């Protein structure tokens, strides 16, 4: 009997070292950071492989589902493919169920759920599903508020709250009913701006994984909500975003340059765009390239608009492209 208890005690002590832990957690490990960076650089095929490997090497790390949702978001948002949207829509609730099985004491527990809701709200707005979109924004806001209360020093939370606080006061009148669905959001552009600025200040001295995301949000906030095109250009041109390595970064910098009246700078940025099968195609870059050439009456703009029409799967800017072709004729 004594031997039995000795063996049992030994097995009990060794169990944590020999068995798999079933405690689900959230961590942006090195592999998770690498996968996230591949997504942000629109290297989506490589990102999906990295995420599959992450599930194998870190099976209890639920942050994989947060990153995975970005892949669906970019695929749908860029292609505007309604069939793809319907096909992938089921992934939202599957990922949320996975995340809800994780560590409730992690700041990523509520944050990841909020971010996934925001991703799908943006996609629903693109496809005209406004009621569902506003409900998801409401869910996201409540999750972020709760998370902010529990983890006031969790910087990533302020990134998303800052955007919501900024945009709620700028919603067009025809969508004000949606704001009522969201509930009371005590926010304004100055408040949201201040929150995002505090995130960027933190990122200056810390390894903050969402730095590029925040820089993009802040630049667009300055451009579209504060009407500060010059400052938006200054922010994005001095950011760490590299248009030579990232088609998304190329789009952002060129787009802000065009809105700030810097067509030459936009054209120079677009010439740096990375090409290759490893990148998810972003046809709008062809459209912007055509615009910059059209502004200086370059006949080669036609080729860019034709490329855009060839590869653009959604409806956005199709009419405008045909109009520009007519002008260039």
Structure write-up:
This protein folds into 3 domains: 22-200, no CATH class; 210-271; 283-329, no CATH class. It contains 18 helices and no strands. The protein starts with a helix and ends with a helix. By secondary structure, the protein is mainly alpha-helical.
Number of strands: 0
Overall 3D form: globular
Annotation field: number of helices: 18
Radius of gyration: 23 Å
Q: Which spans have pLDDT < 50 for at least 5 consecutive residues?
A: 1-21
Helix proportion range: over 70%
Summarize the main sheet.
none
Summed over residues and divided by their number, the pLDDT gives a mean of: 89
Overall structural domain count: 3
Question: Which strand-content bin applies to the residues?
Answer: under 5%
| Secondary-structure element series | HHHHHHHHHHHHHHHHHH
Terminal residue distance: 95 Å
Structural class: mainly alpha
Topology:
Blueprint: H1 2-18, H2 30-40, H3 44-57, H4 63-79, H5 82-88, H6 90-100, H7 107-126, H8 130-150, H9 155-167, H10 176-182, H11 189-205, H12 211-225, H13 229-237, H14 247-259, H15 263-271, H16 284-295, H17 301-311, H18 318-328
Helix pairs in contact: 2-3, 2-4, 3-4, 4-6, 4-7, 6-7, 7-8, 8-9, 8-10, 9-11, 9-12, 11-12, 12-13, 12-14, 13-14, 14-15, 14-16, 15-16, 16-17, 17-18
Keywords:
disordered N terminus, 18 helices, single chain, mainly alpha, 3 domains
């Amino acid at each position: 009997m004594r031997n039995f208890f000795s063996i049992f005690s030994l097995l009990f002590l060794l169990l944590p070292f020999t068995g798999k832990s079933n405690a689900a957690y959230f961590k942006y490990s090195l592999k998770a950071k690498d996968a996230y960076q591949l997504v942000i650089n629109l290297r989506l095929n490589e990102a999906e492989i990295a995420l599959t490997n992450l599930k194998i090497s870190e099976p209890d790390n639920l942050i994989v589902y947060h990153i995975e949702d970005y892949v669906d978001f970019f695929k749908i948002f860029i292609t505007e493919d309604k069939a793809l949207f319907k096909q992938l829509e089921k992934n939202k609730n599957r990922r949320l169920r996975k995340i809800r099985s994780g560590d409730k004491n992690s700041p990523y527990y509520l944050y990841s759920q909020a971010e996934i809701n925001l991703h799908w709200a943006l996609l629903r707005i693109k496809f005209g599903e406004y009621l569902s979109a506003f409900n998801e924004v409401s869910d996201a806001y409540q999750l972020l508020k709760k998370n902010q209360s529990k983890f006031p020093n969790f910087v990533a939370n302020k990134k998303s709250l800052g955007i919501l606080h900024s945009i709620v006061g700028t919603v067009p009148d025809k969508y004000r009913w949606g704001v009522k669905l969201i509930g009371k959001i005590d926010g304004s552009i100055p408040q949201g701006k201040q929150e995002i600025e505090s995130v960027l200040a933190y990122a200056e001295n810390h390894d903050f994984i969402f730095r590029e995301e925040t820089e993009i949000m802040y630049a667009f906030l300055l451009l579209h909500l504060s009407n500060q095109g010059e400052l938006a250009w200054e922010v994005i041109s001095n950011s760490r975003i590299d248009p030579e390595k990232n088609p998304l970064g190329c789009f952002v910098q060129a787009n802000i340059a065009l809105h700030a009246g810097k067509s030459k700078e936009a054209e120079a940025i677009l010439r740096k765009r990375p090409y290759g099968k490893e990148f998810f195609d972003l046809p709008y870059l062809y459209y912007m390239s055509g615009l910059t050439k059209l502004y200086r009456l370059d006949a080669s703009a036609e080729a860019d608009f034709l490329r855009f029409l060839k590869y653009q799967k959604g409806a956005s800017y199709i009419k405008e492209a045909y109009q520009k072709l007519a002008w260039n004729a």
